[in-house]
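Batch job 17 of 40 flagged for manual review because the log was empty.
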Amino acid sequence: MKTIKFFHPEETFTYYIEKCFCKVVYSGQQHQLLIEVHSNDDLDHVDDDSLQNEYPQVIMSIDDFPLPVTSIEELDGQTIEIPNSYVEIEDEDGELVDVYYTTLNFSESKFESDNNKLTFFKDETGTLCVRWKGEAVDFTEETDELIPFEVSCAFVPQKIEEKD
């Protein structure tokens, strides 16, 4: 099942994935991982007094993370660790800039995730899947406490239909 779960101390937040994609792109002289996972905003499975009602939808992303592979086909069987949400790198002008690899987006609020571990595999139909585990800051209280999360999704290829 395609889900996102946050294991908050008060309750487990469960989101159902509406869409997701995974790409390996070549940029800045290196291959980089791009992943986006969007939940739907359906909360029919959530109790009326649940904290999750304040966070009806989440978008999780990985951007610009350097990879030793050149295509998504090479991700099968790989485990990738992204220990920190961002790194400081020196730009072409010698200035230090923050490059964010992972973000969680709830409406207009963005949060970091650390200790990310992505395990890629193919399911019985040959579709590339990921099990993404990590820790996010406590977005309910906006504290530095970390909440474990887990994402399970399949990157089903999109069919493009041509119109006459």
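Reviewer: the log was empty due to a logging misconfiguration, but the result itself is present. The chain has one domain: 3-154. Unflagging and moving on to job 18.
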